[in-house]
Design a protein that fits this description.
Two copies of one chain form a homodimer. Chain A has two domains: about 5-75, OB fold (Dihydrolipoamide Acetyltransferase, E2P), CATH 2.40.50; about 95-410, Bira Bifunctional Protein, Domain 2 (BirA Bifunctional Protein, domain 2), CATH 3.30.930. Helices cover about 30% and strands about 25% of the residues of chain A. Chain A has twelve helices and 20 strands. In chain A, the strands form five sheets. An eight-stranded mixed β-sheet of chain A has the order 5-9-10-17-16-15-12-11, sandwiched between helices. The radius of gyration of chain A is 26 Å and the shape is elongated.
Chain lengths: ~425, ~425
């Protein structure tokens, strides 16, 4: 087993070491050949003779030699990240097994794991219990046609659009729960914000007195995640020249209606009465909250009943609107959540109203048929958070192996036949 | 928000508190009515008057009152778990939303989360990096027909049988990786050991000198998980009268052939030459290793080429057998792993030999087309480990929402129509 990493050579100057890694590049100066040897911790320059000429980039090698300090005038603290990866998005993804090896690409997923870890750690500190949600499910939870069917023996089942129903069932045993899971949406369009498979960070809490307690939990969580990323990902943030968004002392809240009024006042675009905000609207509201409230986050609340799933709790004071919210940051929805209906009959009625069969929701309804306390919860998309922290242009860059309607690993479109012919002669 | 849990009342004797929870049961003594109030931390007996008679089991209530110490002669330290849940497996699972609330059922999943957490923590200590594997995949990784197809726009895709290929791709960037993920197997049979969806704890390591380093990593990991469960789950183990399996100083290793010889000698059943061990064989070998080597774990190694997936490294000394292993404990396979082929041409050849199209493995092959070091890895099934630690009879008991060919949430068989009629009058 490999004993030391490249970064450990700093403490071994003058000693003989054996290093293992990949050839990053080769510079041939006739008698002397330089090889940049890469491993997961960095690059070491290896000085060798003509034999090194036989090497190619990405060859795996081991070398033995004495560690020398780099002459002070040649030290380049940005060596690891000086090269940008100037490729188009399809190339970046069609060659993912290679592009992942680039330190700047690797950095994205280092940040993502810090976000996920920090979510897990914080939820535990808040007294939430982790569980594993099932992904093959008997029902459509979020409504709509955006669901993938699975050929499952002779039954109709789907890939879970969210762990929503299972989070709620779990409350009966654990009161406060969270899960790091996968959610699937059969989005029939290709946008910069959507993936068909994404990492969902989900939480649910029972015995709330007010739905504001859910927003408070989100605020405390986001504050903690941002602090952790800022502290643990200094080098990665530097590579992207990125700053973690600031969480103001109290995140401002706007009702959807108020947000629409504001947009009308600022831009004269009249979207009052629309059931939701468009991407342009979300950008405008984020601009407003930054300019007027010095905050990069804003809660939009009270979406209309028609735009939210069947389990969303109506606002008792205004039953056509719901106790629901989105948290926006840098023009994108980061978190969505709200209070849920905890009355059995109301849920059965809504499932029918949404055109589904209550029997497909049997385990879920069971949890409410007896007793369930007032409750609510929320979910975060790990890719979107990573994207927006680093200022990436497309959510796909923040997914290790992004899936959309035209891509599962390599692009599935016809013109990728080229790749197929080249590599396998159409075998 | 609920401020204190039932267990906190121990420190509040003589104080007035407000408790929130579920009615476990009601004992009516005319003027006095006793209610056992349950929350996630335990049960508190509440003494009330006739008004309590209106309550039903599983009602959610809050009560205010003064905390009194239980008279010493009535203290029952096993109160939480004295009631067993005497129901059949189909009932246990068809009423999962309710049965989960039973402390003894809840305990199973508390143990499972300790297993998963301990896996994560230990792999990080060993220098492995966590990543999120995709679940919608373009290829069958483990061969065979045991794969679920997903209706995915106009492409043929599947649910991942394992994160194998992605673990290997990730090595190029991170050298040592792990993932807590889901694996899907379209097992067409209903046994006590199989689920169609299970929690896979997966790891992969590059730059190995010998495949024995993989077995060493497994041994150290299992030792750590067992120690952690023993230390953190005392109450849960007591409920099940269970003992964590002992990991001997060095886990014995047997080649498959040697195991078969042993079974023949001990039982006169001649299974020599079979390509794999049957469940009965696995039980016999576990018996042997316990009796003869005082170990509850045993590695079986060198399975024949034909029984292992295309990526398995052949044994250079005996190319019809592989550098692969299973770790058995208490009659069941807990871990499977081995060294992988890291030569591009060999992989392409094998994919064709297994009847698949290399193009469907493009990203994977890309990782090897340039350079990939010697490497290997392993995976653990979280449900099986939980099952065997607690001595459960069926792996389904160790899955929160088990899926098999006849069950997704509630049983899908025709006779469950009864439940449907009863609850929804066939709406």
């Amino acid at each position: 087993m490999k004993k030391i990493y490249n970064e450990d050579t700093i403490d071994k100057i003058g000693e003989e070491v054996e290093l293992f890694g990949w050839v990053q590049n080769i510079r041939d100066h006739k008698k002397i050949v330089f090889v940049d040897l890469r491993d997961r911790t960095g690059i070491v320059q290896v000085v060798g003779d003509e034999k090194f000429r036989k090497l190619s980039p990405e060859d795996v090698i081991s070398v033995k030699g004495v560690v020398k300090e780099r002459p002070k005038n040649l030290v380049n603290p940005k060596l690891m990240s000086k090269d940008d990866l100037n490729v188009t998005l399809p190339t970046l993804l069609d060659y993912r097994a290679l592009t992942l090896r680039h330190p700047k690409v690797r950095a994205i997923f280092e940040v993502q794991e810090v976000v996920i870890d920090s979510f897990r750690k914080t939820m535990k500190e808040f007294g939430f219990v982790e569980f594993q949600a099932p992904l093959i499910v008997p029902s459509k939870t979020e409504g709509g046609a955006e669901v993938f069917a699975v050929k499952y023996f002779h039954y109709d089942v789907y890939l879970g659009q969210s762990p929503q129903l299972y989070k709620q069932i779990m409350l009966g045993a654990f009161e406060k729960v969270f899960t790091v899971t996968r959610a699937f949406r059969a989005e029939p369009s290709v946008t910069t914000r959507h993936l068909t498979e994404y990492i969902s960070l989900d939480a649910e809490m029972a015995f709330i007195d007010s739905w504001q307690e859910i927003l408070e939990a989100v605020e405390a969580l986001i504050r903690k995640i941002m602090e952790t990323v800022e502290e643990s990902c200094k080098e990665q943030l530097r590579m992207y020249n990125a700053k973690v968004p600031k969480v103001s002392k109290k995140i401002p809240q706007l009702k959807l209606k108020e947000a629409q009024e504001l947009i009308y006042k600022r831009t004269k675009r009249d979207i009052r009465g629309e059931p939701d905000l468009s991407p342009t609207d979300e950008e405008e509201i984020c601009k407003w909250v930054f300019e007027e409230k010095s905050s990069e986050f804003v809660f939009i609340t009270h979406y209309p009943l028609e735009k939210r799933p069947f389990y969303t709790h109506p606002d008792p004071k205004d039953p056509n609107h719901t106790l629901s919210f989105d948290l926006l940051c840098r023009g994108l929805e980061w978190v969505t959540g709200g209070q849920r209906i905890n009355d059995y009959n109301h849920l059965v009625e809504n499932i029918k109203k949404w055109g589904d069969a209550p029997y497909d929701f049997e385990l879920y309804l069971q949890a409410f048929r007896f007793g369930m306390p007032p409750e609510g919860g929320f979910c975060l998309g790990a890719e979107r958070i990573t994207e927006k922290i680093l200022g990436l242009a497309n959510v796909r860059e923040a997914s290790l192996f992004p899936r959309d309607m035209e891509r599962v690993d390599v692009g599935r479109a016809k013109n990728n036949l080229e790749l197929r012919v080249k590599n396998y002669e159409l075998n």
